What we know:
Blueprint: H1 64-68, H2 81-109, E1 117-121, H3 128-134, H4 148-155, E2 161-169, E3 173-180, E4 185-189, E5 192-196, E6 202-206, E7 216-217, H5 227-238, H6 241-244, E8 247-252, E9 258-262, E10 267-271, H7 276-287, E11 299-301, E12 309-310
Amino acid sequence: MASTRRPTYTPTGRKGTAPGGRGQADAAGSPDADEVISASRSVPVQGTEKPAARPGGAGGRKSAASDSGPAANVVAFPEPRGKRRRRRLLVVLCTVCALVAALLAGAVYSPVLALRTISVSGTSLLTPAQVQAALEPLQGKPLPQIGDDDVSRLLEPLVQVKSVSAEARPPSGLAVTVHERVPVALVKQGEQYQLVDVDGVQLATTADPASVSLPLIDGGAGAIGQDLFKATAAVLGALPADVLAKLSNASAKSVDAVELKLVDGQTIVWGNASEKELKAKVLAALLKVPADPKNPVQVYDVSVPRHPVTR
């Protein structure tokens, strides 16, 4: 803290009065002995200095600094670089998001991607024209708005279709792959023969059973949907296509006594529908064994597939 002491100078007094008996001042040239000559300076205490009045001001006017208020004492610092970067990054991200949203909206609703052509594959019971006709309501709809569910819903009336998948081919094409139900047997109904799958769904009709390499299920149309039919159809559905083509008919006295007949007259004792995949492999292997003219096989028993019997 600055000192507030005021220095004072006191000249020598009259003769004989100077301390220490030092030299006497000349009476003619010395000032009055009682007069004290002093010099002082006011040193303000730190933190207590007040702004000086403006020179020539009347009545102690305020200084220019006090007239301008607190804002004159505020120092403006530049914005931190990191904050500027964050603000710019936020602006860029918002711009990119807006552009992406605009592009997506344009793709979903743009007439440029409207469906115009439909290609169909995987059909055998159906024709591609039948599938294309069923999908006609999709024409003109933007490709991004078309999914497998839309295609499946329109193809539900076609019982031959088990499942379907669709793939967009921009700018205006749609590729549809149809997975049809597989017929496993024929069921006689009047003069016609129904082609049915393992679920008993009637897929097509034919008047000539010889034109279709499928076994005939004994019991007619009344067997469809019954337990015996389901057991027989489950067995036929497990057989490979080459074995299925060698069968002439199939029958079941009960769900545990399914029998098959080959076109050559041999009988296949299948039993129930358990382990049907293993039974199908064993039967396929037995049918590949060369026939012995001296001991022809009449019965293939695969009801116990780990111990098959031929007789």
